[in-house]
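Sample log: Putative membrane protein.
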Amino acid sequence: MSETPGSAGGLLAATRNGAATLLAIGRTRLELLGNDLKEEKLRAVRVLLLSQVLAFSLMVGTILAISLLVIAFWENRVLLLSAFTVIALASGGFAYTALRRSLRTSHQPFAASVAELAEDLRQLKGAASNEPGSD
């Protein structure tokens, strides 16, 4: 009779410890997910800003270079403007295909969180199969 209350207390304590462990794991994973979200947001904003600065700088530099060449070689202005138009359209086409390729091959934004959750699941399954009462 004395074994029943002791084993019930042990079972209750084990259940509480198990619940506390699961809550701690869940909290850790949520914090990791939050960190992943922050990192992805910062990365996206940084890439967007750098790409805008790059596009603006290249646009202004290209316009100035073409203007300088047209003024320097005024007699051949039609040939120069035609050549730069072809170059601009070709580089635009190249950028378009590179952008499409980049959008098709995206990286997995929450790879660390998914890997940690998979590892937790593997460990939980291993612990459940090694329990003495599961035989």
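Observation: The chain has one domain: 21-127.
Observation: The mean pLDDT is 82.
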